[in-house]
Amino acid sequence: MIDLMYCAGGNPRLSHIAHEEGWLLDQKRLIAHALNPQYPGYCGCLRCYRNWGYSQYHETAYDWSHTAFPLCEECWQQLSSEERLTYYRELWKMWNSGKAEEWHAIEEAVRKGL
Question: Distance between CA atoms of 103 and 87, rounded to whole angstroms?
């Protein structure tokens, strides 16, 4: 489990927010555990685990013909671009393409907030 005080930089006011966000993330994961079996064959959010059968993904276009969507819209909205990069990199690794130029295009799009 992530230390929520650490995530909030030790600020008690922010730690309350981090704790609330952690609680909400736990709730989303419980929902995923209950609903995902009803939507077999779908991929899903790499953060909250809810699948695309019932949650909206955030699509990031990183060139004119390619998109990536490792996060649901809710999780995408809650994270900074730096925090999002973790999930985009994980998705890119899952693709196993090994194309560094592809990763650089994804990274640039995520940093731009696309």
Answer: 12
Contact call for residues 69 and 58 (beta carbons, < 8 A): yes
Question: Rounded mean pLDDT of 75-83?
Answer: 95
Give the mean model confidence (pLDDT) for residues 39-67: 94
Contact 58, 70 (CB under 8 A): no
DSSP β-bridge partners for residue 67: 61
Q: Which two tokens stand for residue 41?
A: 């064959």
**Whose CA is closest to 75, among 4, 34, 8, 21?**
21
DSSP reduced 3-state for 62: strand
| R_g of the chain, CA atoms, integer Å | 15
Find out whether 55 and 72 touch, Cβ atoms under 8 Å. yes
The domains of the chain are located at: 4-111
Runs of H (alpha helix) within 46-99: 73-78, 81-95
Burial of 4 (0-12, 13-18, 19+ CB in 10 A): middle
pTM check: above 0.85? no
